[in-house]
Design goal:
32% helix; homotetramer; 7-stranded mixed sheet; 6-stranded parallel sheet; 346 residues
């Protein structure tokens, strides 16, 4: 039984970790960290857990936690994990960081986009980018995993095989992404009020969203060269779900069957990636509550572009589900243990 | 391994049966019956099941099915199960009917409220009303279970202990219920279109909804006398969930602690009934995707009324989850097997 | 041209006043008061008003305002209007208070339910309760109007004719009300976040909501005796709209035609009250954006109860629209001037 | 007073025409055409119009109508207007067609994208494309106006000034559009059910949506050359609103101030186009219920792309509002008469 500690257990991603781990046969949560709710019953903060979780919230003492648990999940704002982590902690326990602190290898890129100083750059090289489908072997041996962002998971997996195979012109890549509102977190802010979000759609962070360099770095590894792309997120009036619609020029004449074969080559054996039949468009609702990525595409011969589409549940494959998938890999468990969540419809 | 056949597998309740049974370790679906989609891949009708269910839809041949499976779920419109069922079928297999055909003991009440002739009244006496928390022992021995309605499950369980203990004046009982739109089914009807339901709330079936006599019959058994009550359903712009707000005059002077003790007496050991702490109001979102009933109450000394509130997921405890709970009982399984679904929030 | 000042122009009710008055041919807003946004452009706070309103927000200086405008609307939290108002102000300008400060005639009831001291009880007697359909003549002569609450407007108008005619047993009256989320205001509070409200319904303020004594007082005047009733509000995942479902025992044998005739007697000439044909149930969407109250009812002979239903837009007839209706009456304008808003569907 | 006839008055666009024209001081609806609801009271089909519209629905007799009214609006499926129109009708009355029948000048393009034969190609040359901001002078003299599509109105106006000035590389133009569900019409179809649309987002019509050639034709006129672009529509869980996010490479080095100046050059005097301050992103909610187009943009120096964003209410500026704007122009009225609709928020 893997003993788990969560720092930031009362944000939406933290709560989703609790939901998933509660149903995980091989893991047990020992620590529900939440600075904001110390000593309050966890089930008073998230009443879905009434009579399921009996524990109270604890503070964010990572040092102490390191001695108690086998793995620490940090589902906290940027900068916190980097400010707490040290060699002593990593010598005692594994860490899966759901924030952005260890996702970007280049500390200057981090500091430019996040506008904060990085407090633990010495671990950047060691940290493994936890996109399981791509870095599986490295994750298995990691002490510190940087769990990918929600938009990035969806954006990267949707384009990865074609980037890797050189089938798309990376300079032409445009990602137009749409997210449910849980991605904005549980902070009590005016723009996240029901009446502001409901019956509304808007773009935000245009040409400046922090997930941009993360997508660029990873797709750059795939393409074997530096990638600069356009990424535009949108806020959609729904709780969960991300849809990424991606546009790129094809580098050669290919058929949809050939493209399908390329996707299948990379994802055929991936339990959590479902490549839809040609012509089918993914919908976020069809993956809700699950760890799946659904991928579809369409070639537009008029413009010589391919339109790729990917859908995930931002809190599962985009956060907590992927974190548990990483945990399973790091501890030699079956990769899908505790993650066989059937999407809920409607 | 229980072999399961579903008739009506492509309605919302049928689809929820598929979702739940797919994760049930002791059951296996052998037959996805759906007259409307015969020979189509089930996963083309419900794309959440892509790469999870490989089967195609079959017809509604109950005779044939009886020889193939251990239990048949009928998630079909009123009248269908009664028109197909017979002694031969029941001698070979168990039947759990999610329609109203066997819920009301009095055939004339059925025919009056449902406006159709009952084709199999000979099984009414044998049929067990499958509200597990109340009829557990009878369910265990049943061949034919009438799975309760969604509104009725929520309405009955919320008031049952107080009715049973004589603490509320049954003539004063008023149930004001609110339901998500999945309760209206997947039929392509104008009133169920997104733009008609969204940003809207309305009452419907006022003083005439078919779940009324079902609630009256069951609460009548509890109270030990004939009950006539007001029941008003409302349509709410959300997918899932039923909230029942119930008003009744108290028959004696009691405190909230005493009421809480009565609820605890009946539900303390019930895994799927969660009696909230006094003062807390149930919310449908906190039970979404799960088999829980959350119950709260408040005494209003100014009016000498008690306001009882109950919340369920209409597709789980109000339909498919309860049906599986019944199946577990009928086959001697652990009652909660396959039903330890943690509510999803948000 | 009536010169108007608004204190609290950046709450949802204040913003709706701005929307309505912007289209009012006989009124002009001179003062957009908002303590929170002083000196900011109003159109930066409410971007729907971009290029429509050019003004910036001002402070809450009621004294100064009294010399500048013909009427002051206070769309502010409880207690503010009472703390600012005085004889000098009322000698110079008219005041329409959208808060609860002057709705209840009995100061002790106010202080009991609102838990704050009343700072201007000397104006309680003079203040006119601005439910236009009932107090029209008094409103015309008023200096100070207490604009009714949203739930109360809907609840009172729905039951008023039957209460007045003695057709319902007032002790049996139960009001189960459902409101859109704009009623909770624009404050950045966790329970009002999109992800907490969406896909959810709950009761709140059970047996303790502050609109209860207001409804009781007004229906008490209608019935000619003290009324104590049950009132339960619910939060619905939609922006606008209130639906009140009201239950009461009939005091005599009447037909639906007779009830319809009673409603027509009171409301036939009321432009903003639409009594639906017997059997029709009001829906909030059908009045959205307008000043209408839609009323329907159904007699249940089984229980001898009548179920009355009323629907309004909480921000219009439940707040800003009614306030403008009061203004029109106070200034001798046509009552519907600027209020001929056609409901928007969908 | 302009006498108006509507064919297709019970679709969502037709109903919006009724809502707007009801408040138009210079027009009067004489004919509510609706094949599906002949002889039914219009207010029974759209209950928001109860006590506002007393008329019943009529058939689609365009010949007869031509003698009765000054202008006919056809808010009908593709092909109907073309199959009914003739010289005799156009000699008696003006026609504003909200379908696609007369939007594309090249009949073969129409037949290729719409898969139906064009029944009245002889009027294609005469028909004026009714995008008022661009074709104002032609509209004033037109007998037959082709009212633009909803996606197209938003897409074209957002890019028009930059296309016209040659500031964007038209071959690089990608339009990612998101629409509320009223755009799908009031037909009772499974994909438009509440439970299928709610909590969901998907792309549809990828690389094949019929609005594509319409956008290409109009932006081609602006750019002075043939344009081929990518256009992807998405379905969003909200009633109203379209947001178009448009990506294009800049043809020269320009600042945001220079781009703003270009937009202002074209739109400064346009009442219904609001160019937001640099950096601001349009949101559909801020234009809801109004005839506005809100436009924002952002230059991304990293990719040398400009991201342009436009928001409209698809039923107003995207359909009925623009149709009325065309009517005003055709009859010499003030262009904004009856269209000074203040956006409703929330």
């Amino acid at each position: 039984m893997i003993k788990v500690g969560i720092i930031g257990a009362t944000g939406y991603a933290g709560a989703e970790l609790v939901r998933i781990l509660t149903g995980h046969p091989g893991a047990q949560i020992e620590w529900y960290g939440s600075r904001s709710y110390i000593d309050q019953k966890y089930a008073d903060v998230y009443r879905n857990m009434f009579q399921i979780v009996d524990a109270s919230c604890m503070d964010d003492n990572m040092e102490k936690l390191a001695s108690l648990v086998d793995v620490i999940f940090t589902a906290t704002p940027q900068g916190l994990c980097a400010s707490l982590i040290n060699e002593d902690i990593l010598s005692k326990t594994k860490v899966i960081d759901l924030s952005a602190d260890f996702r970007l290898k280049d500390v200057s890129v981090y500091e430019e986009w996040y506008k904060i100083e990085h407090k633990a750059p010495q671990f950047l090289e060691e940290a493994v980018y936890g996109l399981c489908e791509i870095n599986r072997e490295k994750v298995k041996k990691a002490r510190l995993v940087a769990n990918p962002g929600c938009y990035t998971t969806c954006s990267i997996l949707t384009a990865y095989p074609l980037a890797k195979e050189g089938l798309i012109d990376m300079d032409s890549l445009i990602i137009d992404a749409k997210s449910g509102t849980s991605g904005a977190g549980r902070g009590a802010k005016l723009p996240n009020l029901f009446c502001e979000v409901n019956e509304n759609i808007k773009a935000y962070g245009v040409a400046s969203h922090r997930h941009t360099p993360e997508i660029e770095e990873q797709l750059g590894y795939a393409a074997g060269k530096k990638v600069t792309l356009s990424f535009t997120p949108h806020l959609v009036p729904m709780n969960r779900g991300i849809l990424a619609t991606e546009y790129a020029c094809l580098t050669e004449k290919v058929t949809e069957e050939e493209i399908k074969a390329v996707y299948d080559k990379y994802y055929r054996d991936e339990k959590f990636v479902r490549v839809l039949d040609p012509g089918a468009c993914p919908e976020t609702k069809w993956v809700e509550g699950s760890n799946y990525v659904d991928i579809g595409f369409k070639i537009d011969p008029r413009t010589n572009r391919i339109i790729m589409m990917g859908a995930i549940d931002n809190l599962v494959k985009g956060a907590a589900g992927q974190a548990v998938q990483n945990m399973n890999l790091m501890f030699g468990k079956r990769e899908s243990e505790g993650l066989e969540l059937v999407p809920m419809f409607p």
